[in-house]
Design brief:
- By secondary structure, the chain is an alpha/beta fold.
- Helices cover 37% and strands 12% of the residues.
- Strands 2-1-5-8 form a four-stranded parallel beta sheet. Strands 4-3-6-7 form a four-stranded mixed beta sheet.
- Helix 6 runs parallel beside helix 8.
- It is elongated and about 60 Å long.
């Protein structure tokens, strides 16, 4: 065996993604929304699991547009023209699909922004005047409820460098946590995991880092399973604390000092000796 082959290659991380972002023509208009960063750059390092809940529901391509209506907290999914109510059917499919994805050992998911099925946040909800950007797509909601620790993002937000770095960081951290659980968690291993991630936690959420440290220090006072569950939830929540989207700030330039006045001879006035005052006679 060659030296380069002495260690098996690590399996790529598996992430779910809205299928249209990989270039699959599954949009309501027969098109796609291929994202070069996701398909080409990040795609070299991960294994994508593409999902389009609208096609899986049997709506076809192309299809009638659908939208969220009613209460933003519990909206209905309605076909825009025919007024067909798809809420129950999509909810049933979303929950079943989320359960299937949970068995695939995903470590992250990228949603299509603004989608009534896959939008993570700020999806338009119609009814009673101007649409409000307060909704969440029905499939996205079901997946996030089924896998609350799973790092999720939208492709639009990943255009921001800070949010993109935060998402990749959370994906790798989640993979390490799942690996630690698969190896078998003990109190000593939990303490070692926390020590290895303490600096990362401090950089993201110092208060949460202290809480998790106290949780580990007192792990012997509670059942280990409860401690591990609380730590995992707190760990991923701490890393979810993201820096605000980067904004381009123009550097404030101080005005240059005024140039020294020049005399008619060309010499700076400041360099000329001051005139002597005449002495007063005694």
């Amino acid at each position: 065996m060659r030296r380069a082959d002495s260690h098996p290659a690590m399996a790529p991380l598996r992430l779910g993604i809205s299928a249209c972002l990989l270039g699959q023509a599954v949009r309501y208009d027969g098109g796609h929304k291929r994202d070069p960063f996701l398909a080409e750059t990040l795609g070299r390092f991960v294994e994508w699991v593409p999902v389009c809940p609208e096609v899986e529901l049997g709506l076809g391509v192309p299809r009638e547009p659908i939208r969220l209506e009613g209460d933003a907290a519990a909206p209905r999914l309605v076909a825009a023209k025919s007024r067909r109510d798809l809420t129950r059917a999509m909810t049933r499919l979303a929950r079943a699909r989320a359960a299937e994805l949970a068995r695939l050992d995903l470590v992250g998911y990228v949603f299509k922004k603004d989608s009534p099925s896959c939008g993570m946040e700020r999806v338009r909800v119609h009814g009673g005047g101007r649409p409000r950007r307060r909704g969440t797509g029905l499939f996205a909601r079901a997946l996030m409820e089924r896998l609350p620790l799973l790092p999720v993002e939208e492709e639009g937000r990943l255009g921001d460098a800070a949010l993109r770095a935060s998402f990749v960081e959370r994906v790798f951290a989640h993979a390490r946590w799942k690996g630690a659980l698969a190896a078998g968690m003990t109190r000593a291993r939990l303490a070692a995991f926390h020590a290895a991630h303490e600096r990362l936690l401090l950089a993201n959420h110092p208060a949460a880092c202290r809480r998790l440290g106290a949780l580990v220090a007192n792990a012997g006072k509670r059942p280990l399973r409860a401690v591990v569950a609380d730590y995992g939830a707190g760990f991923m929540e701490a890393l979810r604390t993201q820096a605000p989207p980067s904004t381009r700030r123009r550097a404030r330039r101080r005005p240059a000092p005024p140039a020294p006045r020049r005399s008619p001879t060309g010499r700076p006035a400041a360099s000329r000796p001051a005139p002597r005052r005449p002495r007063s006679s005694p």
